[in-house]
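so my prof wants the structure for this chain in the tokens format not the other one, which i didnt know existed until like an hour ago. anyway here's the sequence
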Amino acid sequence: MSLNLFQDTMYLTIMFEVVYFIIMVLVILRVLHDTRSGVKALAYILFIVLVPVVGMLFYFSFGINYRKQKLYSRKIVNDEALRQEILTRLHDYSEEVLHSDLVLSKHRNLVRFIHYSTNSPLTGNNSVKLLLNGEEKFPILLEALEGATSHIHLEYYIYENDETGNSIADILIKKAQQGVEVRFLYDHFGSHGLSNGFIKRLEEAGVDTAPFYRIKWYAFANRMNYRNHRKIIVIDGEKSFIGGINISDRYRNDTNPKNGLYWRDTHLMIDGRATIYLQYLFLCDWNFSSENKLQYGRDYFPQRFDAQKIQNEVVQIVPSGPDSKLPVIFYSIMEAIGSAREKVLVTSPYFIPGESLMDALIIVAKSGIEVKLLVPGKSDSKMVNSAARSYYTELLKHGVRIFTYEKGFVHAKTMIIDDDLSVVGSANMDYRSFDLNFEVNAVLFSKEITGQLQKAFEEDLKESREINTHDWLNRPTYILLWEKLIRLLSPLL
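here's what i got, hopefully its the right format
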């Protein structure tokens, strides 16, 4: 190699390094500016510095805070006067229920935070049925779909083309042919197994379909990161389903489950006014995804409910996602834990809580409040499981009791506070549910439903093994180091 060529090569190398360094510094400044969580920002910065080029590509694909940019507007009423009238009516109704002695005063801050952050009202006049596992959910769901007379709205993260999926599709086709409006919204990533033929069969029968945030090759990583994890069904604007159970054979144990794995999950059927806000969420998500836009109409938001069906349960729906200004589900969980006086019982399949939620659980545990955490004995993700286990040590040291479910895979996402407050929904206790996914929970101010959930929790503990604190703290050093290393990546999982 000649001297001039060597000098030119060295010059270009130095120039490349200088340019790369400047770009890296600018990206790090972007991370610091956009990322609210210091822990998460540090994880991204370490990845950018330690893994050249790939680290920056990863951040721009997965790390940009879309909550600030807001993927879409939730406004479904173009008439501003009508919109303000609706918001005022929701506010007045929420305050009326709040002061009706149906909700204890200790929960008023939680109710108002949810309402002022999302416009979701506190609703009375609901009947609520707890559905444990797919074998309870699907027969009741099929019966409810058969009874639809006006419209059926489905929104699911995972919908599979299997026996369960086809049994529901058959009813959707039947109802559409009877003149019922049927709309099917599915997450394009979570339901990637649905074939064009399956969708075509629905559409040819009159079912209106739309994929949520369609994944395109030029935006694959970014769009894959922001998923619609909600599971919502609304029937005639009055009856609704919400929880953690997707549409798939794997969620039921009365047929042959895949791999013989027992699947433990929780869902709700709601008949009453809480359905109104789930309908609103569906319409917002539908209008974002479909070219066939829907507008506010009384057929979708009925004013009257059958009094004979109502048990007067009090329910508030909590949405969260990149379309909201705040991580509302995360904040609502923090507020609910802070209101505990006797017990906090949490079930979560993916437990990567972050420092704030860890602190909240430790505070209540150190205050003499019973805190129990139910997690999978075996997870469907070894990385997530290792990251989750890294949090157990500190919790165990401060009195939190942790149980691993051994009968199968626990996929339920529930929380019980004392004997009068419970949460059932789609959100896990992890960064992805709190910051990235579109999620929805139901908060129930009900001794009856909370009691049923606690009974189910106690039954689940019989199929679980409690982690012994002494044994856990004395595990081999290499395991502890591995879990702490994976924990550095927990904001990214």
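also thought this was worth mentioning. The two ends are 47 Å apart (CA to CA).
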